[in-house]
TrEMBL record:
Organism of origin: Leptosia nina
Protein name (Swiss-Prot/TrEMBL): DUF3456 domain-containing protein
Residues spanning the membrane: none
Keyword line: Signal
Record bears the keyword Signal: yes
Record family assignment: Belongs to the canopy family.
InterPro entries found in the cross-reference section: DUF3456
Domain DUF3456: 36-193
Lineage of origin: Eukaryota, Metazoa, Ecdysozoa, Arthropoda, Hexapoda
């Protein structure tokens, strides 16, 4: 099955072959997998987004059961329920497949939703009637790249390793500590580099990396 990395492979190998350059690894072809900081950043971002969506639900739910259905069930607000956490976690790593690689960027912002500048240019040429032959069908251009599909797997592993930390934040620190700080800095990335958490996409003309206030 073709993916976007296959497309890059086709593009780059044509150039490399014409110049007799030896290709030894995926890194030679521009494939750069996400590091642990980048994975944690995206996981925290997506989970926070899902929690914000489910937090808008003001339903009151009933929990527990009784054999004779006489004893009333316990009622609790959905916003403060375990059900909300479970539903927010369910499939959260699948959201990573909505991301693309923006190879024109060098830091963690290279992982972002939306079409990359490279593919905007290619699609723009096609829209103008220019024949662009990449050796694969047009409908496969926007399939998730190897970096993205691998990040989904990385996300699932990191999530499994840090479920307790997420639950601790959900019940005790939600609203007072940023999820990225609690999950990543204090747990998943403890005593390691967490600088990617503070990298933000810069607007044109803006200098330096924006910092998120803690």
């Amino acid at each position: 099955m073709f993916c976007r990395t296959t497309l890059y492979f086709l593009l780059i190998t044509r150039v490399l072959t014409s110049h007799d350059v030896e290709v030894k690894s995926e890194e030679d072809l521009g494939v750069k997998y996400a590091n642990r900081c980048e994975v944690c950043k995206i996981l925290a971002t997506e989970l926070q987004g899902r929690l914000e969506e489910t937090g808008k639900v003001h339903d009151v739910i009933e929990i527990g059961y009784s054999l004779d259905d006489v004893k009333p069930k316990k009622k609790t607000k959905y916003q403060k329920s375990e059900l909300r956490l479970i539903e927010s976690l369910d499939g959260v790593c699948e959201k990573i497949l909505e991301y693309n690689i923006h190879k024109e960027r060098e830091d963690s912002t290279r992982f972002a939703k939306g079409m990359s500048q490279t593919f905007k240019t290619l699609h723009g040429l096609v829209d103008k009637g220019v024949k662009v032959d990449l050796g694969i069908p047009l409908e496969l251009w926007d399939k998730p790249s190897a970096e993205i599909t691998h990040m989904k797997t990385q996300c699932e592993s990191l999530l499994e390793e840090n479920e307790d930390a997420i639950e601790d934040w959900y019940w005790k620190h939600q609203g007072s500590i940023d999820l990225k700080i609690h999950l990543c800095t204090k747990h998943a990335l403890k005593n390691t580099d967490d600088s990617c958490l503070f990298e933000e996409l810069k607007e044109k003309g803006e200098k330096g990396k924006a910092k998120t206030e803690l």
